[in-house]
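Sample intake sheet
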Amino acid sequence: MDDKTLQALTALANKLGTTAEYLWGVLVRQAPFTGAIDMLFMAAWVGGAVMWCRFVARKTAPPKATEDDRHPRADWAEEAAFFSWVSVAVVALFAGLAVSSSLAIAVAALFNPEYWALRQILK
C-alpha cells in the first residue's frame, strides 16, 4: 500500500475512532458479502427481464386460426403487442446496464477483496 492510500485509510479510521489495520481487515472481510449481494441483484435483473420477455411472447402470440375465423387480428391488438415488445426492450436495456456497470467490481469483490477494499477507501 502506498503512502497516499495509507494516509486516506488512517484519516478514515481516525474519523471512525479505530485503527487503520482494523478498518482494512473489516473492509477485506466485507468484500465477498458485497460481491455476492451484487451478483444476486444482477441475477434478479436478468431473471426478471427473461420472465418479462417470456410473458410478453406468450401473450402476444397470434391465436391459432380456425375455420370460423374470418377476420384478421384487430389493429389495437397489434399496437398493444408493439408497445409490449418496446417494454421488453426497455427492461432488457436496464438489466444490461445494471449488469454491465456492476459485474466487474462484483467479481473483484469476490475474487480479489483487497482491490475492492482499496476502491472503497479511494472513493
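Comment: The mean pLDDT is 86. The chain has one domain: 3-60+74-122.
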